[in-house]
Amino acid sequence: MRSGTTPVVHIVDDDEDVRHSLVFLLQSVEIMALTYPTARNFLDEFDPDEPAVVIVDVRMPGLSGFQLQEELARREYPAPVIFCSAHGDIPMSVRALRAGAVDFLEKPYEPQRILEVVQAQLKEAERTFAVHGSRVRVRERLDSLTPREREVLRLVIDGLPSQVIARRLGASVKTIDVHRARIKAKTDSESLGTLVRDILRCHISV
């Protein structure tokens, strides 16, 4: 990962002239950009933990822009995706936006327009990667829990006290309290309350 927190722009386009012109435009306003001639090159080289914005062409050799978008979604990669195409139409743009793209721009680019879009999404990338990082860390903390501990935790999230949880699960209150203590210790939480808050804030299913 690069040092610093400023997001980078990934440009995925098989047209070398487009890649160079976009890099020149972005660097003119001090935005760092990296380029890739194919979607496969990008997938092989990018740092998934580095805050970023992705600008991707629709039609490319090998994986198309839509296939790349699907793969990034499968990997839960949180970078805002901007589609660009010289052959765009309404169905194509609707497909991209419905799948989560933040914008669909037509080539040739209007320089000021693309700068405005990219600069806005760079700010959004800082937020989305921070949220994504929080979700990853919470999930990692939950990975150590046994199925029974997860069951207890789900009932804790529902707001049930140990006595009610014990009746639901056919266990003693003492056993439930042991599970609660283990959950707190395994997840390195200050309290179960803070753990529940983190889970709900990150929209994680236990």
Question: Could you describe the 3D structure shown?
Answer:
This protein has helices at residues 16-27, 39-45, 65-74, 90-98, 111-142, 147-157, 162-169, 173-186, 192-201, and strands at residues 8-12, 33-36, 52-57, 81-85, 103-106. It is an alpha/beta fold. The protein has a five-stranded parallel β-sheet, sandwiched between helices. Helix 1 (16-27) links the parallel strand 1 and strand 2. The chain is elongated, with a radius of gyration of 22 Å.
Question: Key terms for this structure?
Answer:
9 helices; alpha/beta; 206 residues; elongated; Rossmann fold; five-stranded parallel beta sheet; 2 domains; Arc Repressor Mutant, subunit A
Q: Which CATH top level class of the largest domain fits?
A: Alpha Beta
CA distance, first residue to last residue: 30 Å
| Rounded average pLDDT | 92
Largest sheet: 5 strands, parallel
Q: What would you give as the CATH superfamily of the largest domain?
A: Response regulator
Question: Based on helices, strands and strand pairing, what is the structural class?
Answer: alpha/beta
Number of helices: 9
Helix and strand run: EHEHEHEHEHHHHH
Low-confidence runs of at least 5 consecutive residues? none
Q: What is the total tally of β strands?
A: 5
